[in-house]
Structure formats: C-alpha cells, structure tokens
C-alpha cells in the first residue's frame, strides 16, 4: 500500500498546487474573523499587564494633603506650673520683684486642632522578589496568549480549506447532475419519438420520465447543498453569506505526503509555557520567605492656623524592612500545591505528544486511503464512460434495450459523483493532515 501511494503521488506530482483564490480567502478570514480580533484584544491586554508589572519597579509619587480640626478626647498633661512656679517664687523674692509670673499647668489635645499637612509622598521598592517573578509570569502569559491565537488560526485555516473544498465539491456535483439531466431529457425525447412510431413500448417512456424527475430532484438537492456550503464558507471568512466565491481551476490532488512534525505543534508549546509559568509561580510563592526592602520620602509643609514660614517646611525619609518569620506553614503547603500542578502538566505533555502523533498518523493514513479511492473512482469513471458509449451505439442500432442504456448512463453519473467526492475528500484529508502536522505557513 505504501508503494502504491508513492506511485500515485509521483504520477500526480505534475498537477498544479497553486490555490491563489483559496490563499486570498484564507488571508481575508484571518483578517476579518471576530474571534481572532477578540484574541488580539486579549494579547494587547496581556501586554499592558506586562507593562503594569514592569512599572512596579518605578517609584510612586503621590500628593497628600490633610487638614484636621479637633476638640476633646485624650490629652497630654504637662505640669509646667508645678515645676516652675516654686523656682519663679524664689527668684521674685531674691529680686524683690514680680518679674517671674506664676504659670498654669497645661493640657494639650493629642489630636491636633486647626492643623494642616501637605506633602509629596514617594515610595520605591528596593528589594522585592514578588515583583520580579510577577513580571516574569506576566511576560510568559503574554506569550501564552499568542500561542493560543496561533492554535485558533491553524484551526480556522483548516476549517476554511475544508469549507472551500466542500463548496467546490457541491459546484461540481451540480454540473454533473446538469449534464445528467440533459442526457435523460434527450432520452425522454427519443423514447417518446420511438413510442409514437411504435418502435418501443410505453415502459421505456415511463422509465425515462421517472429518470428526469429523479435527476431534477437530485439537482435541486445539490443546489441547496451548494447554497449551504457557500453560506458556511462566507460565514467563516466573515463575508455576506450570499457573496460569490471565486473557484480555483484544475483542483487535482496534493503532490506529496508530509514528514512528521508534531513536535512543533503549538499545543506542546502551550503546555511548555504553562509549565514555565508554574515554575515561576513556585518561585513567587517561595519568595514570601525573603525580606522586602523599600524606601520612602516625604517632602512638605505643616503648621497650625494655616501658617506658612520656614519652620513649616519639613522632609521625612527612611527605609522599611518586612520579613515574614512565621505564617503557619501556609507557604509550605502552597509550594506543595504548585509542585503537584507541575507534575500534572508534565503528564499532560506526555499524553498530548502521543495524541498529536496519533492524530498525524491517522490523518496520514486517511490521506493515503483517499488518494487510492480517488484513483479507483477515476478508473471506474473512465470505464463507465467507455461502457456507456458502447451501449449507446448498440441502443441506437436497436441491439440493446433501454434498461441497459439507463444502467450505463447511471453508472456514468454515479462514477462521476464518486470521483468528485473522492477528489475533494483527498483535499480535505490533506487539510486535516496539514493541521495535524502544523505545516501551514502563515508568512507565505
């Protein structure tokens, strides 16, 4: 079977493979598809999230203003009179004067009354591993979004190709039935003429009438199938459902099979990126054990009764150190969860590798079968055509009955339909193989 497939492919190597109209429609589909637009929005969102993560390394400056008015509440008692009045009394006696007055004890509100504070508050992280790993995760998530887009694009290309081939298949089916209808109508005309001349019985006329009705019904079904195929194809490329579709001529067969390339499938890249993200999540969780160091600085003015002078201005700066000493083993259990997730992803990678390889092999075998089926149908079509020609001559010479002619003509129609189906089934199988192998080139 392998040798037969290779011989078939070699013999068909001269057939054209250029599909300019289809390539153009694929470009339109990739540009106009709403899901792709939505995924591009998600990618842009991820890029902005990455920029946001990068901005966490920069200082933050905020304008802060406070004004307080207070009365009552807690106070601080200052016994100024009790401390100084005995001293002042002694001094007055020595100086024989009242130069040192008696003082009252003071009670000052803790909450400042009629007090304002306006400042620029600046903070900046100096050492924070959470920010570092958060940025790495955001960058990998952006790449993950791009891979998801590529996966959808490949699937869309496959669907567009299959829809296009099915439309071409339906158009060719209409042409076959139209040719068949012209033939059976001619048979109907000839049989009616022969019946009038008493050369055949009424059975042949009735059978030819039924054949016309049958082919007309099949033709109508084929037209409806073609309309549906056109609508679905236009839906995939986001055009009006009744838009005309340009047809590539000489659609024969793919010229060659594909070498296995499943290791480059985006699905594996996606899982690999997910594993890398999980590793950084592990480091992010582990970083909770590391100290965090940040700096801060305030530059402003503050005073009572809205006074502004040199003494109102101030600056205040410092460092802040936070080190989580104990959290009830919370981080320890989080790390174990992340570790189990990593094992799960590794198992998924092994499983997906086998699935993708199986998909490729099945698609490869389906293409081989489709090619062989097309060769068989093509030979049967040629044989049926020759047989019909011979029977037609015999019928005109009165040496064959109408049933034999009808059988020969039905064989021609059926073999043409089968060859048409197997031809485009081969292209459909090739599109599925191309998808399974991720070989479509988006840059061509």
From TrEMBL:
> One GO CC annotation, please?
cell outer membrane
Protein's name according to its UniProt entry:
TolC family protein
Keyword field: Cell outer membrane, Membrane, Signal, Transmembrane, Transmembrane beta strand, Transport
Entries under PANTHER family matching the protein: OUTER MEMBRANE PROTEIN TOLC
Protein family membership = Belongs to the outer membrane factor (OMF) (TC 1.B.17) family.
InterPro entries linked: OMP_efflux (IPR003423), TolC-like (IPR051906)
Its Gene Ontology molecular function terms? efflux transmembrane transporter activity; porin activity
Q: Which organism is it from?
A: Chryseobacterium turcicum
State if Flavoprotein is listed as a keyword: no
Where located? Cell outer membrane
